Task: structure prediction
Amino acid sequence: MAKQAPRRLVDLGRLAVLVAIVFLIRDAHEEFLTKQPTQLQSLGLDQAKPFFEEARFTKDLENGVLKIFDADKKLLGYLVQTSPASDASIGFSGSTNVMLVFDHEHKLFDLEILSSGDTKEHLDAVLADSSFLKDFKGHTEEELGEGIEIEGVSGATLTSMAIVEGIARRCSNLQLSDHSSRITSTKISKDKIARQQRSFRFPNSITLAEAQTRWSSCQSLLPSKTNPHLLDALDANGSLLGHLARTAPAADDVIGYQGPTDSLLAFDRNKTLTTLSIRSSFDNQPYVGYLPQEYSFIASFEGRSLDQLADMNLTAEGVEGVSGATMTSMAVAEGIVNTAQAFRSSDHNVTDQSTIDEGNVTGQLMADDGNVSKRDSKTETNLVFRLRDIGSLIVIIFAFLLAFSRLRKSKRSRRVLQVALILYLGFVNGDILSQALLVGWAQSGAPWHLAPSLVLLGLAALIVPITTRKQFYCHNLCPHGAAQELLQKTIGRKVSLPAKVTRLLEIIPILLLALVVVTAIGHFSFSLVNLEPFDAYLFRIAGWITLTIAVVGLVASAFVPMAYCRFGCPTGAMLNLLIPGASQGGLNKRDYSALLLLGLALTCRWGL
Result:
């Protein structure tokens, strides 16, 4: 017993090392996020001179505006930066702070990007498109605040539209003069409210053609007289056919797998939802394409009024995500509920009012736009298992029984489990642990409310090795491991590699794990999905790199048992670090690997 004590301390130390690495990844991510709202920079004469050659004096206004004067103290223009108002406008991976240069007539004549939390590739695409930045010029701060029609940059749509949105947020209440010439209390028409609700990620309004796909006799669309958020669909005689609405901008910040989605909502004359469809999406297109094919998902919302949609608790009502597109479909569902809540919240402020305070309306609507992801706290915190999760849970329990009961001697049970892993957990649900997934959890937390079965799978993979000294996930729950084992058993040919070659190949998973640590802490744009083959089980959306790794790994495993697991899997290498060592004291290869990874993590976090 005494001899085991040192080994147990070493095992606990290795676990502490791994926990420390997770902490460093999360800490680096939090710092990355906190940099977004601290992009505000100091503006002065040095920043003004490139745009105003005669600039000699400046004056700071309380609202963050810098007035520029010449030697005779004649007003030349103004400098304004969009941060912190634009910090909530997240593009592909962060917000962008833009300096706006106005002339003395309050017209924008130039702009410059001061800093950005977005990826370099996306920002470079925006800067390379001269027409995008040029389209802002010549507009007053009021026009910019109401939103102007600008096309997004191809290949960097989210980044460019976030810049448009950020400029609109900053200019919505911008006052360039010491004494505002803008009226702060005025009569606002419903079309003014509509302009304040413009989506910059989805700028295209609902068209007549869209209405005609629902009502073929529709001849015109007009703002509803009873609800400022709805459009009335009218026939040639002016008779009401129904109403249309869209989820943008209320759902602009609800992210699925890769981005937000704008949905079209069609209501009957009594404002009961009859159909919904996808208008546009920044999410992965194959995932989005699955939604119309799943009627049960759409049926969850049809037949409900706006108030009933606003009161929906998605988890309590058992709304099922679409198989193969869970994140995307649940984000669409959350966006519908958030939209209904935004409509109801705004209605309380604007219905039956002929005189509205402009600042209050703008502030309310911008607040609604910036906090939609927080509206339905029940949706985010309640946990309800869906059918897919129950299926995954059954597979996990079966795998546990097979690993720790007499069933482990049954070859037939083993084959049944392997087929279930490949077909159900892999191809149907896509519930496979990967470095891309685990890094995301380390950075932002596990999405237990959206994918509880996947989180349980992760817990089983992490906890069981620590408590049983067995590699549970890789041997009993990984679809790719099951595929390799079945393939090897079927072909039955084994190739023996020289011991020296084997030792060299065994280093590869640790090197890949080191790359993961560097990428996660450094927030580099490299996609961790491309390190592993697991997205290949969602073959309709898998990239060619992932598919290639999957095919090559399986071919190799047909001749070298579990070749990918042994020589190419960083997730397996990470899970192996959790397994306690033998009873003897001293350090082993896994201990040294963990220490090297910690040293690398510390270097990346504070040494570079």
